Amino acid sequence: MAQGNAAPANSAAPAATQIVKPTDSQLEQYARTYKKVAQTASEYQPRLDAAKSDAERQAIVQEADQRLVGVVTSNGMDLADYNGISLAIQQDPALRQRVEGMLK
């Protein structure tokens, strides 16, 4: 995927994220949401690069995580479902290819 396989909202996921077998409509919703998540995450990169201290970087990461969770939920997805699909995509090359096709 354009931003790599690790979705930015994963950092807000609980440790026990379940791998899911998503339906076609869930994959389509995931792809739409992923595009918005990736775009939002990229907006934070210049600020992270310019941060002068670990504390400043940490504050930016926390702000980004909160915003990314909001992006996921405002697109009608449950955070656990989004993270579960992200995990399934990382572990299933065929599923990853399907989603990559949707992202084009």
UniProtKB/TrEMBL annotation:
Location of the DUF4168 domain: 24-99
The organism's place on the tree of life at top rank: Bacteria
Region (Disordered): 1-20
Pfam families in alphabetical order: DUF4168
Extent of Low complexity compositional bias: 1-16
Protein name: DUF4168 domain-containing protein
